Amino acid sequence: MRVNPEGLAGDARRARVVDIARAARVSTATVDRVLNKRPGVRDATVQRVLKAASELDYLPESTLSAVLAPQPLRLVFMLPAGTNRFIRMLGDMVGYSEEHWAPFNVRCRTEFIESFNPHELAAALLRNGKRCDGIAVMALEHPAVREAVATLAERGVPVITLISDLSNSPRAAYIGLDNRAAGRTAGYLIGRFTGTRSAKVALIAGSLSYRAHEEREAGFLHVIDEMFERLQVVGLREGQDDAEQNYRQTRALLDQHPELGGIYNIGGASDGVARALKEAGRDQKVVLIGHGLTPDTRALLIDGSMDAVITQSPHTTLMSCVRIFTNLRDKREPLSGVESTRSQVIFRENLP
To answer: Tens digit of pLDDT for each residue in 10-30?
Structure first.
């Protein structure tokens, strides 16, 4: 809304900006800034100008209400760039779900940053913290990131960790799976799907710099050790959530371990793993468990290359973040009205 500095056009009887300035004891420039909702004016001055404008009937009630309405919260979702399709889908959903955020009076945007670089992530956190009211971030477990989150907390900019948490930090909340339980679920599924035969199983992670991936690995190893002694874990490889790297890692595993019976892809880009299995003619023989229901993992479930996908609702994840930020703005408990994140296990036969 742009207010005419000489008053409402076509009605000479209405007060002018100079009249409001005189009544509020401020300059006409200050009145212009207040009426057009530009920053740089103290709250007490804003209220004095709006009171004068109201008393002089300068603005109709509907317009005055718009001027008085609080500015929307500016929220940023910081996610790693790359070929993790679930993360890309989550980031894209921020942009095309504006109608869902409207009742909360927020403005959301996504920033994709270099994956697995904690110093770049820390710098991006501090940079965005200067021009937003809250940040949701898929955090890397690193002192530089922890220090950036602490700095933002001191400045009054809340940070929510998303999908992967950050230990010993003053983040406002964590929204994501119980990752240790997710890893145990994957281990249980591979143990059951491989039957009674002895076999070797492998893990591919995006990076253990993510606490989520580290916890999934720990849960997986614990359940294999507890319940499936016939299975031998041949170690973990990192694929950086990149389809091409996951493809190469899987080819190397198949070459080194011809008797490989199962793979748990802890991170994203399961299509790279499946491509290697198909090329080797092993896609219907090696059990493959992964994360994140996306168009590509859906197709892999249908053709039998994947056996199960552990996932969560991206829309519910984003909505939970928005609710937490608005709870903090309105001085409520952060998790008031926020659903706990539910893990879903999707098979070909129960695809939604």
So the answer is: 444 567 888 888 988 999 998
